[in-house]
Amino acid sequence: MSSRREVLAEGLAEVNRRIGAACDAFGRPRDDVDLIVVTKTFPRSDIDLLAELGVRDVGESREQEARVKVEQGGLPPDLRWHFIGQLQSKKAAAVARWADVVHSVDRAKVIARLARSAAESGRDLTALVQVDLDPTPQPGRGGARPDEVRALVDEIAASGLRPGGVMAVAPLGADPREAFEHLAGIAEEVRRDHPTARMISAGMSADLEAAIEFGATHLRVGTAILKERESHG
Ligand SMILES: *Cc1c(COP(=O)(O)O)cnc(C)c1O
Question: Any idea what DSSP says for residue 206?
C-alpha cells in the first residue's frame, strides 16, 4: 500500500521524466517548459501534498470549487492558481479575485469583466486567449476562432490585463501534432504584436510530448499525476 503522497510523488516523477525526454528529443531547454498540475475534482489535501513536493502551479476549471480551495489559505505564497475551464461571463469577476492566470479567454465581454474585477481588487492578472483548433467547431466547447485571436489579445492589453499568449486543447480525434503546429503559428503572430505574450499553454496527460515538440511553454497535466480520485468509501 502506498500513501497518497507516494502516489503523487511517483506521478510527478514520471511526468517530469516524460517532459525531460521530450525536451531532449526536440531540442528544448527544460527551463522553457512549466508544468501546471491540474487538480480539478481532487481534494484540497492533494494540493497541500503537491505543494510540499515542490509544485507551484495548479490548474482548476470550476470557479466555485477552486475558490473553496483557495480560501482555506495556508499554501505557499508563491503558489500560482491557473483557471483553465470554460469561463462564463457571469463567473469572470469571481475568477479574477483569486486566479493569477486565466487560460480560457475567448470573448470581449469576459475580458472587460476580468479587467474590472482585477482592478477593483488590485490584482495583477495574466490572460491567455483560448483558441478553438477544431476545423468543424463544436458548439459549447469554448475557444475563439483562429482569426479572432489577435484582436482579442489587443483587447486584453488595452484592458489593463497582462497578455500572456495562447492556449488550446487538441481537438478530439485529430492528430495533436497538427493542432499544436497550427497553435505555434498563431502564437508567433501574437508575439509579433505583443512581444511579452510568450506563453503557449498546450499539452495534457496524453499529448504533452507533441505539445513540447511544437513549442509549448506551459503543460496542463492532471490524470498522469493524480491518477484515480481517492476513495472516500
Ligand atoms: C482537465 C484538463 C486538463 C488536464 O487533463 P488530463 O488529461 O487529466 O491531463 C488540461 N486542460 C484542460 C483545459 C482541462 O480541462
Answer: T
